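Forum > Structural Biology > Help requests

Title: Can anyone predict the 3D structure of Tr-type G domain-containing protein?

Hi all, first post here. I have the sequence for Tr-type G domain-containing protein but no way to get a structure on my laptop. I'd be grateful if someone could post the structure tokens.
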Amino acid sequence: MTSSPSTSSSALNIGILGHVDSGKTTLTRRIAEMGSTSAFDAHATSSGAATSSEVRRNTLDLGFSTMTSSSGRRLALIDCPGHAGLIRAVLAASTVFDMAIVIKETTKKVSKGLKSMGVDENSPVVEMSLADGFFKEEMLDNLKNAIESRIFEPKRDTDGS
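Reply #1:
Sure, ran it for you. Structure tokens for Tr-type G domain-containing protein below:
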């Protein structure tokens, strides 16, 4: 999905939500072109890990990375924490999201939250699995096409404080 950058000055912010170990960061890594220092949890390790294979990559931080749509629009990817206790905090902060990618197990909770916030609960759903044996490259293409079909020019209030 790379091309020359759009003439639009507004990037779209895409929240990536799901439970712990659902593959949010793996998905983000596969579609992102560039990430911040903490975008892919490189700094997050569990205390007491005896070997590198026991290292956990869970974090409470937001990870920021970017990609460019096929139309040239800059997209900011926001990899959100997946701890169940933080879903309300993530939804409260979601006012900066222009769209969201939600892992299947979280869909019901997010749909309820969207409805309560007056957001269209009938947004497109793209089936996705990054697990070995289930992942197919066309799943990423379907996701990118769904994102592309929803791109719009956001209205940002830049006159306020």
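The longest strand covers residues 12-17. The radius of gyration is 16 Å.
Shout if anything looks off.
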